[in-house]
């Protein structure tokens, strides 16, 4: 059976979402980043970086959430992983793009505007992060103006990967990016997304 290490309040949220989309039964180790459970020799044997998420798929161990989701989508099918090489390349493009252009930036903006205690927030970090988020959202808006989904005519692992990373953007005013706003809500209105959001917010 698939085992998923990582709390929904971490990047494991996208892996949990993927497993639910695919209907894969799994065991869940609900461990937060840097929790004591991730500091043990046993966990470092799974991921020498000491980070979640990690999966153990009947003995095949894999870490890095984007790689995990691409693997699960391709292995289990269900239409989330395109068979057309060009659409497959778009899946890779948007997944890799997100890790470079939005992942850390949206987290830093959220932390230093509302997540951290006010005394620990650094406005300069929030401002610098937002200056990177804006052009990334501009690029995403352009793509979604031309197509309802990021890699083909239907929802795919590309949409899941990027939308999961933009969970914090659900609370932002995205009026400047109406296509992004509509797409993000379409993604998070999916039944699997609602279930994993409930896990994260409980």
List the helices and strands and how they pair.
Blueprint: E1 2-5, H1 12-22, E2 26-29, H2 41-46, E3 54-57, E4 60-63, H3 65-76, H4 85-101, H5 103-115, H6 123-146, H7 157-165, H8 178-188, H9 191-201
Parallel strand pairs: 1-2
Antiparallel strand pairs: 1-3, 3-4
Helix pairs in contact: 1-3, 1-7, 1-9, 4-7, 5-6, 6-8, 7-8
Task: Offer a quick outline of the entry.
By secondary structure, this protein is of the alpha+beta class.
How would you portray this structure in words?
It is built from nine helices and four strands, in the order E-H-E-H-E-E-H-H-H-H-H-H-H. It has helices at 12-22, 41-46, 65-76, 85-101, 103-115, 123-146, 157-165, 178-188, 191-201, and strands at residues 2-5, 26-29, 54-57, 60-63. The mean pLDDT is 96. The radius of gyration is 17 Å and the shape is globular. It is of the alpha+beta class. It has two domains: 2-78, Glutaredoxin, CATH 3.40.30.10; 85-190, Glutathione S-transferase Yfyf (Class Pi), Chain A, domain 2, CATH 1.20.1050.
Rg on CA atoms, Å:
17 Å
Number of extended strands: 4
Q: Give the CA-based shape.
A: globular
Helical percent range?
55-70%
By CATH, the architecture of the largest domain is named Up-down Bundle
How much of the sequence lies in strands comes to 5-15%
Which parts are unreliable, with pLDDT below 50 for 5 consecutive residues or more?
A: none
Number of helices: 9
For the largest sheet, list the strands in their spatial order. 2-1-3-4
State mean pLDDT (0 to 100 scale).
96
* Count of folded domains: 2
* Biggest sheet descriptor: 4 strands, mixed
Q: Please write the CATH class name of the largest domain.
A: Mainly Alpha
Structural class: alpha+beta
What is the name of the CATH topology of the largest domain? Glutathione S-transferase Yfyf (Class Pi), Chain A, domain 2
> Termini separation (Å)?
25 Å
How are helices and strands ordered from N to C?
A: EHEHEEHHHHHHH
